[in-house]
Write a structure and sequence with these properties.
Belongs to the polypeptide deformylase family. This protein is α+β, with helices and mostly antiparallel strands. It has 3 helices and 5 strands. It is about 20% helix and about 45% strand.
């Protein structure tokens, strides 16, 4: 279901609780909401008012990918970039890594399965942005 985007700093600055397999409905809400927003490429659950650690991003083909409980384990090639956010009106300058190693859970047959993967470039930047959201860190 498409949800309204939240700009309330009290919600956005609250660290998210760990997600479980029971949050599959929330994940679908994120996918639906992301698809409904022009030019949006990633979204965290607290951006729709739910402080759970669930995020979604679109790959270069526009396919959505859901991550439960993502954590950046390592980053290489820090650089200053300018980012926009659906929850913040003005672009901001932040430091992001060009390559990150991420641990996350993926829903498979109704259960969360642990995954670990390296991401580079734009996808790495999106994931770092969403992990910040999960930590309650505002850009």
């Amino acid at each position: 279901m498409i949800k309204e985007l939240v700009a309330d700093e009290a919600v956005l600055s609250t660290p998210c609780e760990p997600a479980t397999a029971d949050d599959a409905g929330l994940a679908q809400d994120l996918v639906d909401t992301l698809a409904s927003v022009d030019d949006a490429v990633c979204l965290a659950a607290n951006q729709i008012g739910v402080t759970k650690c669930v995020v979604v991003y679109q790959d270069d083909d526009g396919t959505p990918h859901v991550m439960y409980n993502p954590k950046v384990l390592m980053g290489l090639g820090g650089q200053k970039v300018v980012e926009s956010c659906l929850s913040h009106p003005d672009p901001v300058r932040v430091t992001r890594f060009a390559k990150v190693k991420v641990s996350y859970d993926e829903l498979v047959d109704g259960q969360l399965k642990a995954r670990r993967r390296d991401f580079v470039g734009w996808t790495a930047q999106m994931i770092q942005h969403m992990v910040d959201h999960c930590k309650g860190k505002l850009v």
